[in-house]
Design a protein that fits this description.
Layout lengths: L1 H20 L4 H14 L8 H25 L5 H4 L3 H14 L5 H21 L15 E5 L5 E5 L2 H18 L4 H10 L5 H25 L5 H24 L3 H22 L2
Antiparallel strand pairs: 1-2
Protein name: Probable membrane transporter protein
Main location: membrane
Family: Belongs to the 4-toluene sulfonate uptake permease (TSUP) (TC 2.A.102) family.
Length: about 270
């Protein structure tokens, strides 16, 4: 019974935070499952690979639920966001295959470093002005949001492919959905408006998670018993996160999230050397 309660809390909370900030929630699910399963034996049969694969499957539901919610409020740029899939999808598959070579020690070290880097990125994302270097007429895209306001931004195909290929590899490797990197990328490099970046990021998370999950399922990296409970909790958590997004500023959540990631990252790095 304790296991079920823990999984419901993990799935629900990660989905609320993930959909609210546009990061998916895998960055919370993976280290938590590893901590509960490997360090405390509260979840049986957990390895880093199984935690990553299970998270990828859950993020399909979180991504889909959040995307459908953001589509209703016209916060998803489907046409221009689809450009990112050309790099993101093959990268996700490559990452899921590479994940088989992770040991517990290497997972703790690399994921710890990754968490700290993402926390730093979340700290500075609002302070870094969008880059104007790619603001060329041939790359210009437009999008009309739910309020009828038209936005102009620029998406160079080659830059989009290279950046999202790298993000896709990390997505499949760590089971994190990629939103933690996609949202800042769209804000800083491609100059998306924040509310459209969050919604479009969740669409990216859905598609990348489908591909990376396929790679993990083939390799037997999914704990289906745990996944079903997490999926149900994540579905409702993601819907709640979308509703909260409409009524509050996400800065408070971002501040809390990056503090937790810094602490968790430092803990994992220290643990990798013990």
């Amino acid at each position: 019974m304790l296991t079920i309660i823990l999984l419901i809390l993990i799935g629900g909370l990660s989905a609320v935070i993930g959909s609210l900030v546009g990061i998916g929630g895998g960055i919370i699910i993976v280290p938590t499952i590893v901590y509960l399963g490997v360090d405390n034996d509260l979840l049986h049969g957990i390895t880093p690979q199984i935690a990553i694969g299970t998270s990828s499957v859950i993020l399909i539901v979180t991504g889909l639920s959040s995307t459908l919610g953001y589509l209703k409020t016209k916060q998803v740029d489907v046409k221009n966001g689809s450009i990112f899939l050309f790099g993101l999808l093959p990268g996700s598959l490559i990452g899921s295959i590479i994940s088989r070579y992770l040991t517990l020690e290497s997972f703790n070290l690399y994921f710890g470093i990754f968490l700290i880097l993402v926390a730093i990125l979340l700290m500075v994302r609002n302070k870094i002005k969008p880059l104007k270097v790619f603001a060329k007429p041939q790359y210009e895209k437009t999008y009309v949001d739910g309020h009828g306001e038209t936005y102009h931004y620029h998406v160079p195909p080659l830059v989009a492919f290279v950046a999202t290929l790298f993000i896709g590899i990390l997505t499949g490797l760590f089971g994190i959905g990629g939103g933690a990197l996609m949202t800042p990328l769209m804000l800083i490099v491609f100059r998306f408006p924040p509310h459209v970046a969050v919604g479009t990021s969740m669409m990216m998370i859905f598609f990348s998670s489908v591909v990376s999950s396929a790679g993990h399922i083939v390799q037997g990296h999914v704990a289906w018993g745990y996944a079903i409970i997490l999926i149900i909790a994540s579905y409702f958590g993601a819907k709640l996160g979308v509703k909260i997004n409409r009524s509050i500023q996400s800065n408070t959540v971002v501040t809390l999230l990056r503090a937790v990631m810094l602490i968790m990252g430092i803990y994992l790095i220290i643990k990798s050397f013990l």
